[in-house]
Amino acid sequence: VQLQASGGGLVQAGGSLRLSCAASGIISRGNAMQWHRQPPGKQRELVAAVTSGGTTNYADSVKGRFTISRDNAKNTVYLQMNSLKPEDTAVYYCKCSDYGRGMDYWGKGTEVTVSS
To answer: Is the pLDDT of residue 28 over 90?
Structure first.
């Protein structure tokens, strides 16, 4: 399984970006797609996740501003980020947790920079 993330860039505070992550390969029906981020000099953290059944969860810091969604037909997960803040600056990574195979797959990151 390979994951290709895109959509990062430079945006002013208060702006929006939409990240996409396309998965190629065979993934078990039971899975979860996630977005993680790693701010400069900090540890990677979970931002949002969505299961194959559509259940979502979010980090408290992004609730009400970010929305995760997925298109199962396209094997793609999205992260709509609104009301961006400078503290959202990070490299964003997508991850697929394949419960059937007990495997985790990571994509290469896409960088998001929010200027004040």
So the answer is: no
